[in-house]
Amino acid sequence: MEVTLASWVSLSLVLVSIILRWAWSVLDWVWLNPKKLERCLREQGLQGNSYKFLYGDVEENSILLKHAKSKPMNLSTCHDIAPRLIPFLDQTVKTYGKNSFVWSGPVPTVTIMNPEDVKDVFTKLDDFLKPVSNPLFKLLATGVTNYEGEKWAKHRRIINPTFHVEKLKQMSPAFHKSCDEMIKEWESLASKEGSSCLLDV
Fold first, then answer.
1. Rounded to a whole number, what is the distance in angstroms from the first to the last CA of the chain?
2. In CA terms, which of 6, 105, 109, 117 is 20 to 30 Å from 98?
3. Residue 143 to residues 140, 151, 154, 187: CA-CA distances in angstroms?
4. Backbone angles phi, psi at 160, to 5 degrees
5. How far apart are CA 8 and CA 14, in angstroms?
6. pLDDT, tens digit, 9 for 90 and up, residues 125-159
7. Neighbours of 131 (CB within 10 A)
8. In this predicted model, what pLDDT tens digit does every residue of 190-199 receive, in sequence order?
């Protein structure tokens, strides 16, 4: 009887410890870690909405997107399409500035639009990790955008000479000729339809 009671007590202790560990990891995932990340981002000078339990900004994003798509867009007078395509991000940048963050569930997404900060992100490749992408995306779109570490550095060295200033200067006449042809074609289309026309580019 004592052996059975002792085994039940030990089994129940093991089960309780497993459940507590699982509950702690869930609590850490949905609340503690996001709040820690939010505090860290604010200490670095980034602004954004406060974290909302589990959903983050997903609900507000979907509401703004639905509202933006419900109104027609006048393309003849307004070429600013960001409020239509990405209304939540557009509102966040207007509210919190060019360096801000939003929440995709319990994961913060940092937006950096200041050119000096963007340069830092692109040059310090080991300091800024790329987000984990969808396995299907990795399967369909392989290349420099998905590589990390040494593999990224190797491929970057391979393609870097292609975009060197001297090589681009040699391509300048071809760019100029192509742009001239395109502008002449647009001017002929505009002259046929009057002073202006709408083109799909």
1. 83
2. 105
3. 10, 10, 12, 39
4. -60, -45
5. 10
6. 677 777 777 777 777 777 777 787 788 788 888 88
7. 7
8. 787 776 677 7
User: What digits encode the pLDDT tens for the residues 178-187?
Assistant: 999 988 888 8
Structure tokens at 134: 């969808």
- What ranges do the domains of the chain cover? 1-123
Q: Which helix (H) or strand (E) holds 152?
A: helix 149-159
Q: Are 46 and 101 in contact (CB under 8 A)?
A: yes
Helix (H) or strand (E) holding 112: strand 107-112
What are the CA-CA distances from residue 125 to residues 1, 47, 130 (Å)?
63, 23, 9
Average pLDDT, the chain: 85
**Residues 6 or more apart in contact with residue 54 via CB below 8 angstroms:** 30, 105, 106
